[in-house]
């Protein structure tokens, strides 16, 4: 049975241009002047093998070398390829954990206060390590929990989802209690006093408690340095307005409540209001 080019394209995902490349590289016999080429079973097997090897990261030139070099050590080559893929896997998993942290919080890490203190490559590596949510088992569980709550109605929760929630509750530490204070108790106290206005001393006192609590959490996980009031304002206010964390908070606070908290926090950070904070971020970068 002969296979047409269209069949090869549809079933093996190889374009006409790629097939010509295989022929030019000597991996397949060239079309002998016929207008339409048929591929036999051996051709299909060879194309399949090339696709598998390319999927593992082999370049066409390397595949040609495999075929033409009688002394080619395939075992050694595949062992090296596994090592390369393991490194790539680690890199992808790090970036994935980084992306999940950004999705959860709704923002990217702060850049150095003064450009020049740290090169971007060094900053990126540091951010990938610090913001990789999969490095923190409890953080990863929290991210999964957030996904469950946001993506499924309660009647669709599975036993594994409920088990994850119980695990989170059972594994709560003193630090988690502090986090609960900063993320639930104090914000509720702020919302109850909303009528006072975001810049009222009582409101600002509550925000200061959250700020100090956040910094104690940072020190508790051995992070270098503490948040400045401006950094805190930018980070904490965004947690009520963007990202999965903000979506979760809408279960406890109205949109108006969330904006009021963000406004109060922005004022604490030295901004006139939250709009001024956003404008500053757009002007100077995060």
From TrEMBL:
Pfam families: MerR_1. Keywords: DNA-binding, Transcription, Transcription regulation. Coiled coil: none annotated. SMART domains: HTH_MERR. Gene3D superfamilies: 1.10.1660.10. InterPro entries: DNA-bd_dom_put_sf, MerR-type_HTH_dom, MerR_fam. Residues 3-70 form the HTH merR-type domain. It comes from the Bacteria. Transmembrane segments: none annotated. One of its GO terms (molecular function) is DNA binding. The keyword Chaperone does not apply. SUPFAM superfamilies: Putative DNA-binding domain. This is Cu(I)-responsive transcriptional regulator. It comes from [Eubacterium] siraeum.
């Amino acid at each position: 049975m002969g296979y047409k080019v269209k069949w090869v394209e549809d079933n093996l995902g190889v374009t006409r241009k790629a097939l010509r490349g295989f022929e030019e590289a000597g991996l397949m016999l060239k079309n002998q002047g016929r207008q339409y080429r048929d591929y036999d079973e051996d051709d299909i097997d060879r194309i399949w093998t090339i696709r598998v090897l390319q999927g593992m990261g082999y370049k066409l030139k390397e595949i040609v070398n495999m075929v033409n070099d009688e002394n080619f050590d395939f075992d050694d080559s595949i062992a090296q390829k596994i090592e390369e893929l393991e490194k790539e896997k680690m890199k992808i998993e790090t970036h994935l954990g980084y992306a999940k942290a950004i999705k959860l919080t709704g923002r990217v890490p702060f850049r150095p206060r003064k450009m020049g203190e740290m090169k971007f490559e060094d900053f990126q590596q540091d951010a990938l390590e610090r913001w990789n949510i999969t490095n923190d088992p409890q953080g990863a569980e929290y991210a999964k929990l957030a996904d469950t709550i946001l993506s499924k109605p309660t009647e669709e929760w599975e036993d594994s989802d409920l088990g994850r929630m119980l695990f989170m509750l059972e594994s709560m530490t003193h630090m988690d209690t502090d986090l609960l204070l900063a993320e639930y108790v104090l914000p509720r106290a702020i919302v109850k006093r909303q009528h006072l206005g975001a810049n009222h001393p009582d409101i600002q006192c509550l925000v200061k408690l959250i700020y100090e609590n956040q910094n104690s959490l940072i020190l508790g996980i051995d992070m270098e340095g503490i948040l400045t009031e401006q950094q805190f304002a930018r980070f904490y206010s965004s947690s009520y307005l963007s990202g999965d964390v903000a979506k979760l908070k809408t279960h406890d606070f109205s949109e108006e409540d969330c904006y009021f908290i963000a406004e109060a926090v922005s004022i604490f950070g030295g901004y006139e209001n939250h709009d001024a904070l956003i404008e500053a971020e757009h002007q100077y970068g995060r």
